[in-house]
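Thread: Newbie trying to understand structure tokens

Hi all, I'm a second-year student working on a class project, and my supervisor (Dr. K.) asked me to get a predicted structure for one chain before our next meeting. I've only ever worked with sequences, so writing a 3D structure as a token string is new to me. If someone could post the tokens and maybe explain what I'm looking at, I'd be very grateful. Here's the chain:
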Amino acid sequence: MSTDSFAAIDLGSNSFHMIVVRTGNGQVQVLDRLREMVQLAAGLNADNVISEEAQSRALDCLARFGQRIGHLPAGRVRIVGTNTLRQARNGASFIARAEALLRHPVEIISGIEEARLIYLGVAHTTAGSGRRLVIDIGGGSTELIVGEAFEPQRLESLHMGCVSMSKRHFRGERIREADLRRAELAVGMEVEPVEGAFRSLAWGEAIGASGSIKAIRDVVVAEGWCEEGISREALRRLRAELLDQSPETLAARFDLERERAEVFAGGFVVLHGVFEGLGIEALRVSDGALREGLIYDLMGRVRHEDVRDRSVTALAHRFGCDEAHGARVAATAERLRAQVAAAWELEDADVAYWLDWSARLHEVGLSIAHSQYHKHGHYMLLNADLPGFSRSEQALLAALVRGHRRKVPQDVFATLPSASASPELALRLCVLLRLAVVLHRSRSNPPLPALTLAVDGRELRLGFAPGWLDDHPLTRVDLETEADYLAAARFRLTLANGD
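---
Reply by user tm_fold:
Sure, no problem. This is what the structure looks like when written as tokens:
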């Protein structure tokens, strides 16, 4: 398979999707698409545990996906999990089994990050201009986005989807008027808090992106209620046709797949409620969605147009970080990394990014308080909406900021998600960041002297020009104190003053 190939897999609550593309001459050519309705959310019980039966369906699908992407190198594949895997208490064990089949890491993304990626997929695959509203109905969540060109301006993720609404309100039985009204009220309660904000953005066109919306479009067009897309009137006519129907009769009446028929009513009631709440008269349907967004985001990373870098810059600016100081710390951390990259297996380009981002954000917690600011920064980075970052990536960034001063929090590194980095690699990055921070404690502009860093396992030797440490006694004391902190984490730091 060409090294210009990329693949993305969306582990959705209702369906798993895979897309494989090839790039060249500025064009993206789709090589393969696969979709299977595994209905993972249908196997999620009241305790948020995915049943073994649902896991088995999902893993059988991923075995087939894994065969298709088996020859693609790391960095050319992104696999993300959404709402059901965000909720599942046994999600970590399922992900471990999935990664064994796929041979690539699985990331869990937030609802807001899911919304951003959906918008990116729609924007790159749907012609049009001006401000647009994008709607995506998944199995367990619904994303609403308003954006212009390739930039989203407002993103929301609502806790309702075709599977969750169907399980809660229809349960595979014939649909009664009371069922529909109860479900419509539940959707209205979810949409109401965001109605005003979305209506005020004055978008000119509504676009839908998801299997549920495509299925509804196919039905209303086939019935002659719309020539294309979906209108509000067509949804009202469809509502009347749903009464007294069961999944079996819906499948026969509208020529639906059995799995789609089981969640059709839930998807319909969500879309109908969004139409009513946001005042939508008509919607057109896009072929692009989350997996296409993943592809374009991944291509941006390869081309050094990484949205994560913009997110770090925006966060540093928003919380008043001393950006000049952060840049000095980042430059010194990179000098140190370059010297130990081979010995400490830090040669991957992504490793340099993590060191740079954590250096630029290491003081973000100062916006809350100086006391324990590294802990404030840790909390902020774990819980912020950071476009481009998965949950595991945010956990790694937060851990580095948490560990940049005082006691090394070994428990934080030991419990990092497997998709982020190994605990040992993360600790090595943390040590380099800590040294860079100590060396810039004076916050002054004069450059540091030539530095040499050599490592052998957890043994570090930091060398300076002759007499430099004698002329900078405060730095010597800071480094000796740092050696004590590192010793508690089983690293040994020695200083060489030009000998």
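A couple of things are worth pointing out once you decode it. The radius of gyration is 26 Å. The domain at 306-448 is CATH 1.10.3210.10 (Hypothetical protein af1432). Feel free to ask follow-ups in this thread.
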